[in-house]
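Box S1 | Example of a co-folding query
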Amino acid sequence: MNQDFSHCFYRETSCNRDCLDLETDALLIYRLVEKVMGHKHSFLLLAVFFLALTCMGYGSDLHRTKQADFLPDFNGGMLLIDINSGREIASYRKDVIYERRYSPGSLIKVFLLYDLWRQGLVDPAQKIFCPPSRGRERYCWDVAGHKETDLRRAIAYSCNHYFLKLAEREDLNSFLRALAAFRIISEENYNPYSKLPREEQEKLMIGDSSCLQVTPYKILLAYSCIFNGGYLFDSTDGKNPGTRIHIDAELKNIISQGLRASAINGTSRRAGQEVLPCWLLGKTGTSPYTNGYGMVSNNGATHGWFVGFIPADNPCVGLIVFCEKGNGANDAAVIGGRILHLWLEGNFENPR
Ligand SMILES: [Zn+2]
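Box S1 (continued) | Returned holo structure for zinc ion
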């Protein structure tokens, strides 16, 4: 059955992926510039923008760009799905997406939050101070610290310090049961984790560990469940009816706001919200390098992750990007934004 995606867009009547063109991009940029610089200057800047585009050949390249033109340079995998049926729209490197396991980095933080929220152990208004790092004393991935941070901001900036404070309240088995409920891990996987020292358990619960390893498509299906009314699919053939998981409406709202802020000025900002015609939800992750089959490599490299959903207010399409080497904010998010743009331009088939 053909899926109708026409309801999915932020501007229903004037914007769907068929009408996205250079004009739309330019209009969005114009509005952004206008907001910052005022009407007069933005008109001039737009003229300069068009001149620059003409010189670079951007307009024609944008429309000629197809999946095959950029994916060969992309070392990793991606999966794009219709989140309401679970059906795959497009994928790249099925072995990476469906078979191999990698540490998920900060993508796992949302599921720690889910389980603590379920137990009534989260106060969304609570602010925690993320201090700057001093010498060897590292508090967060951002050495400058995130300062006073509430839950939404902690999600947007993926604040390790905030989530470590949350992890202190969590029982490891409860966390693992939540991951199993979302089918991110299977239930027989518990034993190796419970032998870890408590400090390592807490790092595992915020994604700062190579001990937990998952297949990318399971992470995407679990995230999709948060935004599709609680339907958890266990395949991407579109035939599975899915099981239901109760997602508290307030929690969903907070996660949405955090992922929205992430796309605007948080860790997902390089996904290019300013050139997408609909609002984006994004979350990045960076994790220790593994070989995809459970072995951890010591070369200091990292994997980059990005999950994205559009449109933000009622997502219908979900994407996961996994970069073999790189990080979430500077690599996976950039590729993720390009893939969503390509989908909006009609480069991938709708699910059938
Ligand atoms: Zn922080």
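The longest strand covers residues 302-310. Residues 7-64 form one domain.
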